[in-house]
Design brief:
Oligomer: single chain
Radius of gyration: 23 Å
Shape: globular
Distance between the termini: 87 Å
């Protein structure tokens, strides 16, 4: 009876070791695939066939990586590939299908979704809806900052996204006024906000 228990215990340990080995191999395989994705995209950055190949391989990484940081990174990279390929409608559907936890920060899903909608308006020459979309993105981000307690990294990420949108439709003078207000509001981050100051002749 005792020998049967020992055999059973050894079998359990073997199964656990085997499963852990398969899991580690799976993660390693996903990491290797993602390196290939970046290599293909980098070498063929202007060729649609190369970007399509990178996109297909990126889908495999997203599927095999589980709910990990690698998956979030792969999702972010896929969105960039979709933008480069100008497949904006596909990008909107993809982002809309994902839960918030698939993104590094809570605000990112809505931000990226509306950003791709704006790009789709541009590609369709639908300028009437473009500026209202930009204004909505800015409003959403400003509300997010007011309501959330952000660490330094997320704070900088949000404001970088915010000014990337403002520069698409506001004058240099308006942007610089916003920067001045923020430097007064967050004096400890003046150096950071200085980055967003714009030459007032450049956007006129």
């Amino acid at each position: 009876m005792r020998s049967i228990k020992i055999i059973a215990a050894v079998h359990c340990l073997f199964v656990l070791h085997s499963c852990n080995g398969q899991l580690n191999n799976s993660v390693d395989d996903c990491s290797d695939k993602f390196k290939n994705v970046k290599d293909i995209a980098s070498l063929g950055s202007t060729r649609q066939s190369a970007l399509d190949s990178a996109l297909s391989l990126c889908n495999e990484v997203i599927s095999c990586s589980g709910e990990t940081e690698l998956q979030k990174t792969a999702i972010d990279f896929k969105i960039r590939l979709i933008i480069n390929l100008r497949k904006f409608s596909e990008g909107v559907r993809f982002i809309d299908s994902l839960p918030n936890k698939s993104f590094v920060y809570e605000y990112k899903k809505d931000f990226l979704l509306k950003s791709l909608i704006a790009l789709n308006f541009i590609s369709n020459n639908d300028t009437a809806k473009l500026i209202p979309t930009y204004k909505q993105i800015v409003s959403d981000l400003e509300n997010y900052v007011q309501k959330k307690s952000l660490d330094d990294k997320e704070f900088k990420e949000v404001y970088s996204d915010l000014f990337s949108v403002k520069q698409k439709f506001l004058s240099a003078k308006q942007i610089n006024e916003d920067v001045k207000l923020l430097k007064r509001k967050f004096p400890q981050k003046q150096t950071f906000f200085e980055f967003f100051v714009v030459d007032e002749d450049s956007l006129e």
